[in-house]
What we know:
Layout: E1 6-11, E2 14-20, E3 25-28, H1 31-41, H2 44-51, H3 53-61
Antiparallel strand pairs: 1-2, 2-3
Amino acid sequence: EKVRFVERYIYNRMEHVRFDSDVGRYEGFTPYGECSARHWNSDPDWMENRRSAVDWFCRSWY
């Protein structure tokens, strides 16, 4: 079955940043979120960790 990892950063009921394993990168929805997304997307080690989270985090609980 298809398993998906989604990480969302929400403050004051507003979503700022989201990582979706189907997309494979962070997306920013506010000026602060866009800056954070650019920073995280530019770090190859961090992105490899997030992209593999569907295996080491989601599948272990599924």
